[in-house]
Amino acid sequence: FRRNLSLVKELGDRAAQGRAYGNLGNTQYLLGNFSEAIAFHKERLAIAKEFGDKAAERRAYSNLGNAHIFLGRFDISAEYYKKTLQLSRQLKDQAVEAQACYSLGNTYTLLQDYERAIEYHLKHLVIAQELGDR
After folding, report:
1. The domain that contains 52 carries what CATH number?
2. Which residues contact 62 (CB under 8 A, 6 or more apart)?
3. Predicted model pTM
4. Which residue in 5, 95, 20 sits closest to 103, CA to CA?
5. How far apart are CA 121 and CA 49, in angstroms?
6. What DSSP line would sit under 52-93, residue for residue?
7. From which residue to which does the signal peptide run (predicted)?
8. Among residues 64, 65, 59, 50, which one has the least CA distance to residue 17?
């Protein structure tokens, strides 16, 4: 992925650079290098915004939330997951909306804000039921 990023930078292909940053972020996340993952996902987010790519922006926010969880930065994760939720609603993607609610429920549990956690878990449940997702 690093070679790919280098090549697409040389070619000046910004859209491909965005995808390369996302791939590098996901790889670093899987390797447990969460700070590096965050740096790559922030680059991905910037390029997604540059292109108005709301779906890529939504994925970047979700990935940023996930990485911050592993660094114990639950409040930051919650903010990224809220942005994920907002974009999933704009995109009318109920499955992703449910996923964002689930992530927020878990994050608020980690923050020991149980009332808010319950709210998000209930929203997740309602959407899952609407989608017939057992």
Report:
1. 1.25.40.10
2. 80, 81, 84, 99, 100, 103
3. 0.95
4. 95
5. 29
6. T-HHHHHHHHHHHHHHHHHTT-HHHHHHHHHHHHHHHHHTT-
7. none
8. 50
Sole residue written with tokens 């964002």: 100
Let me know: does 95 contact 128? Beta carbons within 8 Å: no
What is the total count of domains within the chain?
A: 1
The full length of the chain comes to: 134
Please give the residue range of the domain that contains residue 23.
1-133
Render pLDDT for 63-81 as a digit per residue (tens, 0 to 9): 999 999 999 999 999 999 9
The residue behind tokens 């779906």 is 55
Confidence band for 43, pLDDT divided at 50, 70 and 90:
very high
- Residue recorded with tokens 């995109």: 91
The phi and psi torsions of 7 (rounded to 5 degrees) equal: -65, -50
